Amino acid sequence: MGVQHWTIGEVRIHAVLQAVIPIPVSRLFGNAPPHLPTTLVPDYVDASGAILMAIQSYLIESGTARVLVDTCFGSRFLRSREILDRYDESLAATGFTPDDITAVVCTHLHRDHVGRNTTERAGQWVPTFPAADYLLTAAEYRHWCEFTGDDRAPAECIAPLEQQGLLRLVAPDHRVTDDIALIATPGHTPGHVSVRIESAGAVAYISGDTVHHPVQIGDPEIAALPDVDPVSARASREQLLRRAADERALLLGSHFTAPSGGFVGRGDGGPTWQPLVD
Ligand SMILES: [Zn+2]
User: Fold this and answer.
1) Cα of 270 to ligand 1 centre, how many Å?
2) Which position among 91, 149, 240, 260 has the lowest Cβ density within 10 Å, counted as fewest Cβ atoms?
3) How far, in Å, is the centroid of ligand 1 from the Cα of 209?
4) Pick from 222, 234, 223, 218: which is nearest to 268 by CA?
């Protein structure tokens, strides 16, 4: 599948893919059935039964704003030049350069979401998107200061932004533009946010890590092992899915492989995932 784009009213959204990574079910979900529904093969589950996880950003074009939601892995964690280059190529395919980005939304401070906030140049970490405000909730920043786990984004993804005055600590319902707002979806991490886009009567949501994989839409009880607070993560997941269904909104999964956009339907057995295929 080629580069994915969507139109929501007057807003354009592009997927900026870095990588697709197969992961054994038990490594991501502690309580999933060992065999996932075969309807998820081959787009979301591979032939061996492994979960397919996309690492990707979404770029939202709204008027003169170019808002990048998350920045994927950076070079500290990902040594593969090929994968790092692929991210740059995916961004270039949208028609924009890093200098064009006016805001970066950090849904949360895990390294697969903020790694490319900065780039190493001549031994120094510098902002990858020098014209952007980097938006982060104050709750997430506080959590990151106290948290030392493996998933924690390294300091070089945050400190250079602070030094250059590019880091903006915001409320979890912060409005980024007239069309784009954050919504609080705590649980995966305490200050986690998703993104809501509304334009000319059309609505879309970008999930962040509120939902990692389409299998969780049919069964919101399935919890990702890295969720810091699984109870509130589940409540946030159910609320996001309910809102998406109520509003007939396009849901864009941050870790969903293509087709990564679709609708949440209401089946007899609970919510259903209806991928949007061109
Ligand atoms: Zn993630």
Assistant:
1) 25
2) 149
3) 5
4) 218
